[in-house]
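Issue 218. Parser rejects a valid record. Input:
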Amino acid sequence: MIQGLDRIGGLGPLPAGPSRSDGLPGFGDTLDALLRPAASARPAPVADSAGGVTFTKHAQARLASRGIELDADDVEELGRAMDQLQKKGSRESLVLLGENAFIVGVSDRKVITALSRQEAIGNIFTNIDSTVVVR
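Output the parser choked on:
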């Protein structure tokens, strides 16, 4: 059951279990199942002392939902890329790192969002002023 849903509109508690007489899951059951993995997914690291890189909550959710795992070396490479971008005066940039793409805020050293290169194909990235291909 979704927390707080039983209190919406003063309806009182909603019934638990399958809501259809044919035994198939109802809408609420399906919604609960879809939301459960996102809530229990392991979040990305919030900060890394090696590069001072942080991840927004949005970026953490994208890493988890897209199955993108970063190790300490990856985060350190992101930090070095941000150092290079900062030297060039960049503000928001696209960083291509291995099979992943990241939109980063250079001045505050934050990863704003993350996606796989495959997901990036055909997308148009706006409001960025630079791109760096790390590997």
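Fixed in the parser; the record now loads. The two ends are 44 Å apart (CA to CA).
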